[in-house]
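Q: Here's a chain of 167 amino acids. Please give me its 3D structure as tokens.
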Amino acid sequence: MSCGWVTSPNIPTGEGWLYLSSVLDACSRRLVGWSLAGHMRTELVADALEAAVGQRGGRRRIRGVVFHGDHGSQYTSDDYRKLCRRFGIIQSMGTVGDSYDNAMAESFWASLKRELVDWSHFATHAEARAAVFDWINWYNHERLHTSLQMQSPHDFEQTLKGQPLAA
């Protein structure tokens, strides 16, 4: 994880809103951690960060990573700051109300909404979770990005590691 952005769009369901918090790698555009819940409390964003740390090999592998988020109360809470310190993550926050500051994350969310959420109706949280999970898997492993030389985030990371791509 070279650098992360976290934002939390809301997903409407027949059971009420479902919130998605995620950690996006700025180098590969890969979604490395996420969490879904019916609330926007600190636990939601903490779960996404912990998933990203696990995905990237644990505390020793991510020490010194810069993590960029917004000024939401979840990211400025004492609990979240302590979690970042525990992992050795350097917190970064942009200016309030500046959508360009977090353009990569905003672009990611626009894709999720345009490609999945806007044309779907989810009756339940479980149905939305399954669809979002499938979309994230597709996004990470199959969706091509012009900024990644027309590779998926997964394939781009394999190229960076010098490993052959799986067929």
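Q: Can you summarize the key feature?
A: The chain has a mean pLDDT of 88.
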